[in-house]
Amino acid sequence: MGSSSFKYTLLTLNLQTNKVGDEGTKYLANGLRNNTTLQKLDLRENTIGSLGAQYLADALRENTVLMTLILRDNTIGDAGLEHLANASNTNKTLNVLDLSWNNIKTSSRRHLTNMFQCNQSLTTVDLTGNGQGDCAVIGIAIGIRNNKNLTTVNLRCNRLGDEGTEILCQALQLNCSIVTLDLRSNEITENGAELLAKILRRNATLTTLLMGNNKVGDNGAKYLANALHNNTILNILDLSGNNIGPIGIGHLCLAFCSNMILIKLDLSSNEIGNEGVQLLANALKQTMSLQTLDLGINNIGDEGAKCLTDFLKNQTKLQVLDLRSNRITDRGAEFLANALNQNTTLKRLSLWQNEITDHGAQRLMNILRYYHQPIMLNMYENRLERTNVVRREQMHHLIRNRELFEESNFVGLSISRRTTSRMFADRLQIQNTHSMNEEDFWLGLYGTNELFSRRLDWS
Questions:
Q1: Across-strand partners of 292?
Q2: Cα dihedral sign for 101, 102, 105, 107?
Q3: How is domain 302-459 classified at the architecture level of CATH?
Q4: Distance CA 54, CA 82 (A)
Q5: For a pLDDT cut of 70, what percent of the chain falls above it?
Q6: Cα–Cα distances in Å, from 57 out to 94, 119, 140, 200, 404?
Q7: What is the pTM of this model?
Q8: 213: which of 112, 149, 185, 271 fits an S-S bond (Cβ 3.0–4.6 Å)?
């Protein structure tokens, strides 16, 4: 047998959660200096401090191929940021830099300014969870002004407030490249929303605006709605957790009725109620691009579910509807079941933490039995009293013949090639779980708390 040689090219190296520390980073940095292939390096959760950041910075001055560096959840601090910022004077290849949750605080302004002014190749920067407020936003703002290639800015959990938002907006006025802006959890009120609205009126690039967990309220929603009227660029909007009620929803609906091309809309954790759902359902009938709608935790009852029936019947692209943690009973489940009977696109429906009993679950099951495509139904923590609402024999037969899903994972391990979502059981239950057949796996889907998803990925 003849011999052959193989040349392996390492493009991505993931060392997350390995206790690399500063000492390990030193050896790694030495290897990076002359490396000519590695494009992505993930070092999150490795207790890397400012010294480790210095080692990496020294390597970046000589490295000419690394494009993505992830340092999330370390402790590089202001001193480490200074080293990396100085290295950016010579490195022109790094595109993505994740410095989230790194205890970067008071003195970061000058270093961030230096980084963005000197490195025009950066397209994505993540400063989530550093809590540096104005210092971070000032640095980012200068970067936005000077870096014409920056496409993604993540300032989540930075306590910007309205003052920081004002600084950010001043920079956004001069930017024509950013497509994603994440301002979630920043204590932005209606005043900050008004400032952002002024930018949105003239912006022609932003496709994703994430403002969940702020305090914009109904008035802030009005400002944003006025700015978004006839906006044909934005397609992902997150206004979850913003104290928006029916009045604010009414304002937003005027924008939704215009020429907006929304793909994903998150209004969860507000106070929409049945009245707001009625307004929303009527408005969204004209938004045929919507694929994901999150209305969880909104005090929605059966009348609200009824308002959604015509909306569901007419939608041609909606794939995900989240109604978790509302007040929907069997009557509402009946309305939704009738809508599903005519819907042709829905793939995920969450009714987790509602007030549905065995009767409503049976009605939904009967519809799913003849549903034309795979669909994931989450009914965990309702008022189901029996584990055999849908008998095990029926469930087993349905799984075998309908192939509800196409690929799945149970606690991260693939157990079937015919399931499509990730399912997780309680860790205490996992300890006592060995092999599992499809029948047992899917039994939890209809209300038992043996094997059912507590965490679903709605992204």
A1: 264, 320
A2: negative
A3: Alpha-Beta Horseshoe (3.80)
A4: 9
A5: 76
A6: 12, 14, 20, 37, 50
A7: 0.69
A8: 185
